[in-house]
Amino acid sequence: MKPKSKQWPDCSRACALLVLLTLAGCQPAGTLISKDPTSDSNETIVERPQRDIQTPSGLILLAEAELTRGNAEAALTLYLKASQQSANIEVAERAAFLARQVGSDQQIEDALTRWSLVDPESRGALEASLIFAAEKSRLEALESSLTQLLTLEPEYRAHWFASFWAGLSSEQQNDFLNVLTRVASRFDNGSLAMVVTEAKNRTDEPSGTEWLDLWLSSNQPTANVVLFRARLELPDRPAAIRFIDQFPEVASDLNIRAQLARWHGLEGDNDKALSILRAVINEDQTRYQDLLTLGLIEMQSDNFDAAEAQLKSLLASEQYRSNAYYHLGEVAVQRNQIDLAIDRFLRVERGELVVEARKQLANLAMGQNNPDQAHRWFSEARLLFPEFKHQLYLAEAQFQTANNMASNAIPVLTEALSREPENIEILYTRALAFEQLGDIDDAEIDLRKILDLKPNDPDAMNALGYTLADRTDRYQEALVLIEKALEQKPESAAILDSMGWVLLKLGRFEDAEPYFIKAWEKSKDHEIAAHYGELLWLLGRQQEAREIWEVGYESNPESDKIRATIQRLTHS
Question: In this structure, what are the phi and psi dihedrals at residue 32, rounded to the nearest 5 degrees?
Answer without folding.
Answer: -80, 130
